[in-house]
Design brief:
Elements: E1 4-7, H1 14-24, E2 31-34, H2 48-54, H3 56-59, H4 62-71, E3 75-80, E4 83-88, H5 102-107, H6 110-114, E5 122-125, H7 130-134, E6 144-145, E7 151-153, E8 167-171, E9 177-180
């Protein structure tokens, strides 16, 4: 059985993603979960949709891109080593409900605000840079864990290298953390 890795909020910093994949070296039996915000923000603050619309050749590809994005799951449930993991971009609370509200999975920050997870599960989210959760900027960002141990935020603010942001990745089986900063990849 392979290993499961999880990261989030790459925000178009493909150099960091490539470097991270070189470090973790996922094999054929491994899975890499990226919880969202793969594009936008880098190399400068922009909205990908606006960039695509500005170029006629790319504008024609928008339906293809939208169709691809519709195939991506909004969440995942993973069982490993006797633990039940819930993965979503911003909140995992609706994963356990029959009626899942998509906007909560993508945008809701209340779990991070409460700094508590769901008892009996390990929830992994992104969306809120851990620099903000910890309230410490300037030092290298780290993956954040709630006091109850049921919530993990892997958004280490990769797009904010001047504030200590970097790309973080967690191996679910070993809980080993991996980090790559923009300085390593030659990005500003």
């Amino acid at each position: 059985m392979g290993r499961n890795y999880v990261m989030s909020d790459i925000h178009g910093m493909s150099g960091l993603l490539k470097k991270m994949l070189d470090i973790i070296q996922p094999g054929a039996d491994d899975r890499v979960y990226i919880l969202g915000d793969m594009i936008d923000r880098y190399p400068y603050y922009y909205n990908t949709y606006n960039v695509l619309c500005a170029d006629e050749r790319l504008r024609k590809k928008i339906p293809e891109y939208v169709d691809f994005m519709k195939t991506l799951p909004l969440y995942a449930k993973v069982k490993t080593d006797g633990e039940c993991w819930l993965l979503a971009h911003a909140s995992t609370e609706d994963i356990l409900h029959i009626w899942k509200r998509k906007e909560r999975l993508i945008w809701d920050t209340s779990m991070i605000d409460r700094q508590r997870g769901i008892p009996g599960y390990v929830s992994v989210v992104g969306h809120v840079p851990t620099i903000l959760v910890r309230g410490v900027a300037g030092r290298p960002a780290e993956i954040w864990k709630s006091p109850d141990g049921c919530l993990i935020d892997v958004d280490c603010g990769a797009v904010f290298p001047s504030a200590g942001g970097r790309l973080g990745c967690l191996c679910m089986e070993t809980r080993q953390e991996y980090y790559v900063s923009a300085r390593v990849c030659g990005s500003p």
